[in-house]
Specification:
Shape: globular
Distance between the termini: 37 Å
Mean pLDDT: 91
Number of strands: 21
Low-confidence stretches: 1-25
Largest sheet: 7 strands, mixed
Strand content: 15-25%
Structural class: alpha+beta
């Protein structure tokens, strides 16, 4: 299993992105033009929830560890670390500095983690720290003294973390953006506007923020204070923000971009191009259903919705073969006991395959239980991002639900930032959403649906589900732990809490002049920190 995963990741990481541009300051400067698919809502590591922000943060910040091309944790600010029982000790390198020249110290991590866990911060990702002793109690306001949390800056170069449960992948977990440090003095000076503009961001990574022209472009420049600057080869990363995939493709063809994701309807045109680059992702796309909306409070109705979607046609026709059918939550490249989780817990067992006749039957039964008729159903809107790909996917779901259940669905395209706000506020009936792995374990897809998780925006909760996830986090036996996670996913799918539709794979075009770019199925997805331009 390990060899298979490493081989897969190695193939993915060999994807070469981008060509060079010309820096205004030097004809010899190495410049990369990488297209962002939307504007980052903000760049506060302790608040961020989205993939785009994570990509930018992965260049301007550095955590205790970083993720290398094989998906494993490598030294970052932490030069070494040890794990004794549930106690992890990270020894920070003395030459780690912030972009203003301040030293990066253990207290910068403790302060950032404390802010992430403070109830007033309302970080949706606070739950990712719950494996730390006392973290959940502090985040839920049951304790107010951060010294009860298992995080201690012993001195400037020693951070000790005590866990309440075994987390064998904790060294990879701390590479995730919620665990990034903050320059406390800078934060105090800027906190009302912290991380909302280029002037309000203070990083410690290979690149510093030169400019952030909202909805237009982000420019990153190589940091001269980064401890490993001599091995940072790219001088400037230009990140134009282009929501329209067709417009991005045109820019790529005009050599205004070095990398872009292909629109689904263009994939077949480039199937023989040497610049075509498949990007395997550990990401599932699904429909969120708001369980407080009367229609979707009924399990039979939700299962009917799930069985009304012809996922194979979606993958073949709408996605042009870029992806795989999803009838379960956990993607097909995430490991399980000895192989892949998806093979060990077959999604076919959930009975959510395309079956329009059974869907009609369940839908009629559900309406009867609700005391509703098709005519009495209030207007249903599917909330989606305002890019062509998301709108086309939503149109497919709209048609499927009309043909198979008689439902009239209105599509409401909104900006990425508004969609996130509406999702957090649970202000929707149906929503097109997705989730990518933060680390290489099924837990990254499953603990987010616990009742009090900030990522569970469905208005659904289950004590049985919560117990399985809690018990799995405390379980030392790997096989028993996976069984618990498999049983938890079964609850989600049996009750059709959400409707998974496909496991995403992006198809990109890339110029062949860059080497060493890390493409990872896990967060952060793309990193130029190890890249160079071929001569």
């Amino acid at each position: 299993m390990k060899k298979i995963l490493l081989a897969m990741l190695a193939i993915i990481s060999m994807v070469a992105l981008v060509a060079c541009g010309e820096n205004k300051g030097s004809a010899d400067a190495k410049v990369v033009k990488y297209c962002l698919e939307q504007n980052p809502p903000q760049l506060d590591p302790q608040i961020t929830t989205d993939e785009t922000s994570g990509i930018v943060l992965g260049h301007i910040f550095e955590g205790l560890t970083i993720i290398g091309k094989d998906g494993k944790a490598l030294p970052g600010v932490a030069e070494t670390w040890t794990n004794e029982g549930n106690t992890w000790t990270f020894k920070l390198r003395k030459d780690a500095k912030w972009h203003n020249g301040d030293p990066v110290v253990a207290g910068d991590f403790a302060a950032a983690w404390e802010r992430a866990l403070k109830p007033t911060t309302a970080s949706e990702y606070a739950f990712i720290m719950y494996s730390i002793k006392g973290a959940q109690e502090y985040n839920e306001g049951k304790t107010t003294d951060f010294t009860t949390v298992g995080v201690k800056a012993v001195d400037d170069t020693t951070l000790v973390v005590e866990l309440k449960e075994p987390v064998t992948y904790f060294d990879s977990l701390v590479a995730f953006f919620t665990f990034l440090p903050q320059n406390q003095k800078f934060y105090e000076e800027h906190k009302d506007a912290y991380a909302t503009s280029s002037e309000e961001v203070m990083g410690n990574g290979p690149y510093k923020m030169a400019s952030w022209d909202f909805e237009n472009k982000i420019v990153l420049e190589k940091s001269d204070t980064y401890w490993n600057k001599d091995n940072t080869k790219i001088d400037t990363i230009e990140m134009p923000i282009i929501v329209d995939y067709a417009a991005a493709l045109k820019a790529y063809q005009n050599d205004e971009l070095d990398w872009t994701v292909l629109p689904n309807d263009e994939i077949t045109k480039f199937k023989d191009s040497p610049e075509l680059a498949p990007m395997q992702e550990a990401r599932v796309i699904y429909m969120l259903l708001n369980h407080k909306f009367k229609l979707f409070s009924n399990e039979k109705v939700r299962r009917a919705v799930a069985m009304s979607i012809d996922r194979q046609t979606l993958v073949d026709k709408i996605k042009s073969g870029a992806g795989a059918v999803a009838e379960g939550l956990v993607p097909n490249i995430i490991p399980g006991k000895a192989g892949f989780f998806r093979d060990e817990f077959p999604q076919s067992a959930y009975g959510l395959s395309y079956n329009p006749e059974e869907a009609k039957k369940l839908f009629a039964e559900g309406l009867k239980e609700l005391g509703m008729t098709l005519e009495s159903i209030p207007e249903i809107t599917i909330l989606t991002k305002n890019d062509d790909t998301s709108v086309k996917e939503s149109q497919f779901y709209q048609e499927q639900l009309k043909v198979n259940l008689g439902l009239n669905i209105k599509i409401e395209p909104v900006t990425f930032q508004i969609r996130l706000q509406r999702q957090t506020a649970k202000d929707y009936e149906l929503m097109l959403a997705g989730w990518g792995a933060d680390y290489n374990d099924p837990m990254t897809f499953l603990d987010m649906w616990m009742t009090k998780s900030g990522q569970n925006n469905t208005n659904w909760g289950s004590p049985a589900y919560d117990k399985l996830i809690t018990d799995a986090k405390a379980e030392n036996d790997p096989a028993k732990r996976m069984d618990m996670l498999g049983n938890a996913e079964k609850i989600l799918m049996d009750e059709a809490v959400i409707v998974p539709t496909f496991y995403r794979m992006k198809m990109a075009l890339k110029k062949p002049h860059i080497e060493g770019v890390v493409i990872n199925p896990f967060s952060p997805v793309v990193s130029f920190n190890f890249a160079d331009i071929k001569k």
